[in-house]
Amino acid sequence: DTAVSQTPKYLVTQMGNDKSIKCEQNLGHDNMYWYKQDSKKFLKIMFSYNNKELIINETVPNRFSPKSPDKAHLNLHINSLELGDSAVYFCASSLMSGANEKLFFGSGTQLSVL
Amino acid sequence: AQSVAQPEDQVNVAEGNPLTVKCTYSVSGNPYLFWYVQYPNRGLQFLLKYITGDNLVKGSYGFEAEFNKSQTSFHLKKPSALVSDSALYFCAVRDPRAAGNKLTFGGGTRVLVKP
After folding, report:
1. Where are the beta strands (DSSP E) in chain B?
2. Is the dihedral of CA A62, A96, A111, A20 positive or negative?
3. FRET label pair with A47: which of A17, A30, A109, B94, CA 20 to 30 Å apart?
4. In terms of Cα–Cα distance, which of A98, A55, A101 is closest to B100?
5. Burial class (CB in 10 A: 0-12, 13-18, 19+), B4
6. DSSP state for residue A73 in the 8-state scheme
7. Quick check: B61 contacting A, CB < 8 Å?
8. Which residue of B has its CA nearest to A91?
9. pLDDT > 70: what percent of chain B?
């Protein structure tokens, strides 16, 4: 069983299009996140959710709209895609407890905007 | 604000030799510190963490790291590297007093273990 699964794995699209990435976790975690990894492998948090509520929006353009229908899902919708959006997007989840704290990552969605 | 620096883009080591990947951090207060590893075309995997207690923490695959508060460092070590340890390693820090569980990652260090 995949703990954190995200789809699709690859996404190739034209500038200006709208696309979505889906994420689901079956770990029972309260916290979910979206991270962006650029071409230099630099990893930066985009959004943090706790029990479906947005906690962190790390100055992400409002073209990016996360949605959490329940605490097991956190989807990412991107409007009007731009060339600079090309990156690998990782979904992650975690428990909020110091002793057990660690992130579980999905395998990533490689987005290429042409 | 919290930040992490990994001063080496790449570390090369011969199989069987000790491996060290450096990490320094900046955070107000006591940090939570983590190491993650990323294999090609995969998501990050947790290796180990320091929350409190013993400064030397042991993790997966024979890795360990030492928390040094005076030097604000959390270097990752392995006594004897394997070719299969070749991957991208990320150090991360979190200020437990900040809302939202924001984890800040370093820029990553690529480890290449040669046979």
Report:
1. 3-5, 10-14, 19-21, 24-26, 32-38, 44-50, 56-58, 64-68, 73-78, 87-94, 104-105, 109-114
2. negative
3. A17
4. A55
5. buried
6. B
7. no
8. B43
9. 99
**CA distance linking residue A73 with residue A27, whole number of Å:** 11
Burial class (CB in 10 A: 0-12, 13-18, 19+), A64: middle
Confidence category of residue B39, pLDDT binned at 50, 70, 90: very high
- CA distances to A66, A109, B110 from B100, in Å: 15, 23, 29
Q: For residues B13 and B111, is the Cβ–Cβ distance under 8 A?
A: yes
- The Cα of B35 is separated from the nearest Cα of chain A by a number of Å equal to 10
Residue A37 CA neighbour count, 13 Å, CB half: 23
Question: Which segments of chain A have a pLDDT < 70?
Answer: 1-2, 97-99
For residue B42, the chain A residue with the least C-alpha distance is A107
Place of tokens 């370093």: B106
Q: Is the Cβ–Cβ distance between A47 and A58 less than 8 Å?
A: yes
Using the beta-carbon criterion (under 8 Å), do A101 and B44 form an inter-chain contact? Answer: no
